[in-house]
Write a structure and sequence with these properties.
The protein is mostly beta strands. The chain has two helices and 25 strands. It is globular and about 70 Å long.
C-alpha cells in the first residue's frame, strides 16, 4: 500500500503510532536468536543444552539515532519525517522552522487542528480533527526554511506544533530549530499523583466463564469467543477463577454484559486485564497438542515496521466510549466513570478497535481479555 499524506493524520499519541515511530535509542546484543530459546530441553524432555530454534536474525546491533540527534548528526528517514515541537507558549500563529536536509523536500506541511463538529448533539471521537496543510519553504545550501503565518490559533494541539517533511525517497535530517514564535505564556500545571481507587465489586464474576449460563455470562457477537490456553502455557492470575479468557480477533467482534450496581452507586472504577497476543515462539512442544495449537509458532516471527499494540474500546451504556492501548502480555487497563442517577444496571461492551488495518503488520493479532472488574468508588 502506498501511503499518502491523508493517511498520516492523527490527534493523539495513540493514533500517531499507526504510521510513525520515534527515532531509535539503539541496541546491542551478543546473543543470536538460536541462543535464547529452548536451552533447557527438547520436545521429549531431554536436556542437551542445545538450541532447537535455527539461526535467523543474528546478533542485534543498532546505532542510537537519539545519540546522533543529540550530537547534531544526521538521522535517516524514508519519504516522510515528523517533527513535533512542545512549545513554551500557547496560541501561536507565527513561527519559523529550519532543518538541515540531504535533499530538497517535495512538500512541507504543518498540522492544523479544528474543533470537532457535533452531530445530533454527540461528538464523534473517531473523526480526526487534524489535517496537513502545505506551507511554502526555501531550500538554501542544504537547509530547509519555513515561515508559518496563520490567522487562527490552529497549529497547536494544546502546546504541540507538528511539522511534516515529504520527499520522494530516503533522506537525512539534522539540527532542527523552531524559533521566533509568538503566543502567550503557557502556565505549567501542578501535577499530582492519583492512586487507583478500590471499592465494592459490582461484577459478581470478573472472569469469563460462560458455562455458567446465568447473569454472570457475557454475550458473544461476531467472532468473539471464550477460550482457554493449553495447560502448559496457561498463564492466568489467581483471581481468574475460570482459567479462560475472551478473544477478539477482529474489530467487528465484541462481548457484552449487563451488571447490576448498588442503588447508591454514583461512580465506578473499571479494570480490564488484557493483552495483544503474539504466538509463543518455541519448538519445545513440537509434536504435541500444545505445539499444534494456534498459541504456538515454531518459527521466529519478525516483521519490519512492527506495530506491537492493539486497542480495546470499552462502551458503557451505549454512550460512554473510551479507547485504551493494549500491549503484549497481560496488563491492567484502568479508568473511572460516573453512573447515571438511579441506575440499577450498567451495560459494558468490549470491542477491539485497532488503529491499523489489514495492510499493516500485526493487524491479525488477537486481543485477549482476562478479567473485568467494576468497583463502586462513589
Amino acid at each position: 500500500m502506498m501511503i499518502t499524506i491523508t493517511d498520516l493524520v492523527y490527534d493523539d499519541n495513540f493514533q500517531r503510532l499507526r504510521y510513525f515511530t520515534a527515532i531509535a535509542p539503539g541496541q546491542f546484543n551478543e546473543r543470536k536468536t538460536n541462543e535464547v530459546d529452548n536451552l533447557d530441553s527438547d520436545a521429549n524432555g531431554n536436556t542437551d543444552g542445545m538450541p532447537t530454534v535455527g539461526e535467523s536474525l543474528g546478533k542485534a546491533k543498532k546505532t542510537s539515532e537519539v545519540g546522533l540527534f543529540l550530537q547534531g548528526k544526521a538521522v535517516t528517514f524514508d519519504r516522510f519525517a515528523l517533527v513535533e515541537v512542545i512549545c513554551s507558549k500557547l496560541q501561536i500563529t507565527t513561527a519559523k522552522f529550519s532543518v538541515i536536509s540531504s535533499v530538497r523536500p517535495t512538500k512541507m506541511y504543518v498540522a492544523v487542528t479544528k474543533n470537532r463538529t457535533a452531530v445530533g448533539g454527540i461528538m464523534n471521537t473517531d473523526i480526526i480533527r487534524t489535517t496537513w496543510v502545505p506551507v511554502p519553504f526555501e531550500y538554501v545550501n542544504g537547509e530547509i526554511r519555513v515561515a508559518v503565518n496563520r490567522e487562527d490559533w490552529d497549529i497547536q494541539l494544546y502546546d504541540k506544533v507538528r511539522i511534516l517533511i515529504e520527499t520522494s525517497g530516503s533522506f537525512t535530517l539534522e539540527k532542527p530549530i523552531f524559533s521566533d514564535f509568538n503566543g502567550v505564556k503557557k502556565e505549567m500545571p501542578t501535577l499530582q499523583n492519583k492512586w487507583r481507587e478500590h471499592g465494592a465489586e459490582q461484577n459478581g464474576n470478573t472472569s469469563f466463564d460462560n458455562s455458567l449460563g446465568d447473569a454472570s455470562s457475557w454475550l458473544m457477537n461476531g467472532n468473539a469467543i471464550v477460550a482457554e490456553f493449553p495447560n502448559e502455557i496457561a498463564q492466568y492470575t489467581d483471581y481468574n477463577t475460570a482459567k479462560k479468557h475472551l478473544e477478539l480477533p477482529d474489530n467487528d467482534a465484541y462481548a457484552e454484559k449487563t451488571i447490576s450496581v448498588s442503588s447508591d452507586c454514583k461512580k465506578v472504577a473499571v479494570r480490564v486485564v488484557a493483552q495483544s497476543f503474539v504466538p509463543i515462539q518455541t519448538t519445545r512442544f513440537k509434536g504435541t497438542a500444545t505445539g499444534n495449537s494456534k498459541y504456538i509458532s515454531e518459527s521466529v516471527i519478525y516483521r519490519n515496521y512492527d506495530y506491537p499494540f492493539s486497542t480495546l474500546r470499552v462502551i458503557i451504556d451505549d454512550s460512554y466510549i473510551i479507547d485504551k492501548l493494549v500491549w503484549n502480555g497481560w496488563n491492567e487497563l484502568y479508568f473511572e466513570m460516573p453512573v447515571q442517577y438511579d441506575a440499577k444496571n450498567i451495560k459494558i461492551r468490549l470491542q477491539r478497535n485497532n488503529f491499523i488495518d489489514a495492510t499493516l503488520p500485526n493487524s491479525d493479532r488477537v486481543l485477549m481479555v482476562h478479567d473485568v472488574s467494576v468497583q463502586k468508588i462513589g
